UniProtKB/TrEMBL annotation:
Residues 18-502 form the Major facilitator superfamily (MFS) profile domain. It is a multi-pass membrane protein. It comes from the Bacteria. PROSITE patterns: MFS. Keywords: Cell membrane, Membrane, Transmembrane, Transmembrane helix, Transport. Coiled coil: none annotated. PANTHER family: MAJOR FACILITATOR SUPERFAMILY MULTIDRUG TRANSPORTER MFSC, METHYL VIOLOGEN RESISTANCE PROTEIN SMVA. The chain crosses the membrane at residues 16-39, 51-72, 84-102, 108-134, 146-165, 171-192, 204-223, 235-252, 273-298, 310-331, 338-360, 366-387, 408-427, 480-498. It comes from Tsukamurella pseudospumae. This is MFS transporter.
Length: 509
């Protein structure tokens, strides 16, 4: 194998075909995550997971993925990025197919974890290969725009495809749809993509890999445990947080003092790199939980079917596609920091608008959804800021850090904001005040919106459903307000941190 920088140059046709394939790889993962949001109510009705299990089904994928990104990207740099990508396709496809034999929430959680392993092989590799295939910085910025736009298309078609599948099949179809797609991209990628490696320098840091995985898993688990216990004084959570801080701190120290570290944390010395990472982390933290809650609200409160829900989520996806294609062009005129911070502010306004109306209906959701999509599309600039000044040999590190920020933000958003919404739902619904509802039934209905709706139908008690709908709507609106405030703070920080005149087409040094 040779390093791509010494390999024969690819033709323009092959370069853009490769860009489409790499973007499609991201598309599959985006569709998978979006479909799951639509499938959660059906899955919950079939397998009856507890509230904690339901949260794990949603975010164990991102937890595993975030923990493995650094290690898989480093291994891909050494042993072949193409090899890592193709192996990721195999793992993702096989894990998706095994859902046919899943009969318990625990088994679904295990399969989601396996999908996380496959995703960790795929996601950073797509960015790394774009960085090395497109050597011209202006052309690379366009390729990154395509990469982000296809991700937005995934958000658009995911709910619709998921809705069609769920109208005709069980929730398992939301997993099985990955299998033929993975088979196709595997076959094409085998012949289309060039191999790319970085010459191995020093032994692979096994201890560093173990430290990065342990630290990330401990960090996410501690946050989830804080949320579950509804207390910042939770003993197990505090112990896990202490372990995470200690292990990750030692990992950073180790990386700074090794000649050839597993992860080059000195990349953060570049202000535009740090600003891009913070933007990705902040936008996913605020939006992940809100979009998940909106999908549940549309199906269980507004009464839309899966297909109707998918169609009604289209504004956020269409806006994301348009914004992701327009953002690099606008950055050339207005500056990268203005476009990126402006997109974050737009998303912040959209989130806050969720809390504005006393009575929430779909007509009042259209503007917030569009504004949130604009914010997601602006992440094209964040990706370009992260990758544009990164040397080729550090492209894997940069991609791993960017994807880690997206996925850690997703996990933290679902864990923290999702748990805040669950707490507010339990408090606002007040099932104990309903005549004829005993304590056990009230507690069961307070576990989740899906559980309350199922109990209401079984008991023939519409009051339970009404209280659940009102409580969930109130919790959704408050969560939107919290997320909007967080996004505004991130926008201010990103604007201040990004150097004036930052050019996202700068050649790597």
């Amino acid at each position: 194998m040779t390093d791509l920088s010494t390999a024969p140059a690819m033709s323009a046709t092959r370069r853009w075909a490769a860009a489409l394939l790499l973007s499609a790889s991201l598309l599959v993962i985006t569709v998978d995550m979006t479909i799951l949001n639509i499938a959660v109510p059906d899955l919950a009705a079939d397998l009856r997971p507890s509230a904690a299990q339901q949260l794990w089904i949603i975010d164990v994928y991102s937890l595993v993925l975030a923990g493995l990104l650094v290690s898989t990207s480093s291994l891909g740099d050494r042993f072949g990025r193409k090899r890592m990508l193709l192996l990721g396709y195999v793992v993702f496809g096989v894990a998706s197919a095994l859902v046919l034999w899943a009969e318990t929430p625990g088994q679904v959680i295990a399969l989601r974890a396996a999908l996380g392993v496959g995703g960790a092989m795929i996601m950073p590799t797509t960015l790394t290969m774009l960085r090395v295939i497109f050597t011209d910085p202006a052309e690379r910025a366009k390729a990154l725009g395509l990469w982000a736009a296809v991700s937005g298309v995934g958000a658009a078609i995911g709910p619709i495809v998921g809705g069609v599948l769920l109208e005709n099949f069980s929730w398992r179809a939301a997993f099985m749809v990955n299998v033929p797609v993975m088979a196709i991209v595997l076959a094409i990628g085998l012949f289309l993509l060039p191999e790319s490696t970085v010459p191995a320098r020093g032994a692979w840091d096994r201890l560093g890999a173990l430290m990065s995985i342990t630290g990330m898993v401990a960090l996410v688990w501690s946050i989830k445990r804080f949320a579950k216990d509804h207390s910042l004084l939770s003993g197990p959570a505090l112990v896990a947080l202490l372990i995470a801080v200690l292990v990750l701190g030692l990992f950073v120290r180790r990386s700074l003092h090794r000649e050839y570290p597993l992860l080059d944390v000195r990349l953060f010395e570049r202000r535009q790199f740090s600003a891009g990472i913070i933007a990705a982390l902040g936008v996913m933290f605020a939006m992940a939980a809100a979009l998940l809650l909106l999908a549940q609200w549309m199906q269980l409160v507004a009464g839309y079917g899966p297909i109707e829900t998918g169609v009604r989520l289209l504004p956020v996806a269409v806006a994301a596609v348009v914004a992701s294609l327009a953002a690099p062009w606008l950055a050339n005129f207005l500056g990268a920091r203005v476009v990126l911070a402006g997109g974050l502010v737009a998303a912040s306004v959209g989130m806050v608008l969720l809390a504005a109306p006393a009575h929430l209906d779909y007509a009042r959701l259209v503007a917030p959804l569009i504004l949130v999509g604009v914010g997601m599309g602006a992440m094209t600039v964040a990706s370009a800021m992260i990758m544009s000044g990164t040397p080729e040999e550090k492209a894997g590190n940069a991609a791993a850090l960017e994807e880690s920020s997206y996925d850690l933000g997703n996990v933290l958003g679902v864990a923290i904001l999702g748990s805040v919404a669950a707490m507010l739902y339990t408090a606002d619904a007040d099932f104990g005040a309903i005549p004829g509802v005993d304590g056990a039934t009230a507690d069961a209905a307070g576990e989740s919106l899906g559980a309350a709706m199922a109990i209401a139908e079984q008991a023939g008690n519409p009051e339970i459903a009404r209280h659940a709908a009102e409580g969930f709507t109130a919790s959704l609106q408050t969560t939107g307000l919290v997320g909007g405030v967080i996004l505004l703070a991130v926008a201010i920080g990103v604007y201040a941190l990004t150097p004036k005149g930052t050019d996202i087409t700068v050649q790597a040094h």
